[in-house]
Design goal:
Elements lengths: L1 H31 L5 H7 L2 E4 L2 E3 L1 H12 L4 E8 L5 E8 L4 E6 L10 E6 L1 E7 L3 E7 L7 E7 H6 L3
Parallel strand pairs: 1-3
Antiparallel strand pairs: 1-2, 3-4, 4-5, 5-6, 7-8, 8-9
Length: 160
């Protein structure tokens, strides 16, 4: 009888602790990814994709350089829906692997989910005649994730 009571009390304590841990982690994630405008994203140093324009592309090139040199680095790529809702993509490179996080929880019409994955490489691909696409590839969930795309002619004519 004493053993049964002890196990029951221990189980209740463990469940209570697990519930507290879960609620705190969700709170931290949501407060970190509160929506902000594209102007604010540019000021913060995010790589911002709006249509074919990429703001702070030099920051993305620096990330690619660090990736190629196997130096740890992290960036945020922020895209916006037609309605203006942000979609955050965080790349955290530890010198070996790319930790990919995509958060569309602020998208009013989206799935409201946060996807986490670990990827091996970033691929640069020319599609169509003028567009260059960058994607994270070799990911653990057997997917590749589109990061940004640029119009090569537009890129050559403008300072990003």
């Amino acid at each position: 009888m004493k053993n049964t009571c002890f196990i029951f009390i221990l189980l209740v304590i463990m469940i209570s602790c697990f519930g507290c841990t879960q609620s705190n982690s969700k709170t931290n994630t949501n407060s970190q990814n509160k929506p902000y405008t594209s102007e604010e994203a540019i000021k913060r140093g995010d790589v911002v994709q709006t249509n074919i324009t990429v703001n702070n592309f030099d920051r993305f090139k620096k990330f690619l350089s660090n990736y190629n040199d196997e130096k740890a680095d992290k960036i945020r790529i922020t895209g916006y829906t037609i309605e203006g809702d942000p979609i955050f993509t965080d790349l955290d490179y530890d010198g070996k692997k790319i930790h990919y996080t995509n958060d569309n929880s602020n998208d009013a019409y989206g799935a409201k989910e946060i996807i986490n994955d670990v990827c091996n490489t970033i691929i640069e691909e020319k599609k169509e005649q003028r567009t260059i696409w960058y994607s994270a590839s070799g990911c653990s969930k057997n997917k590749s994730y589109s990061l940004i795309s640029i119009d090569q002619n537009d890129f050559q004519n403008k300072q990003y």
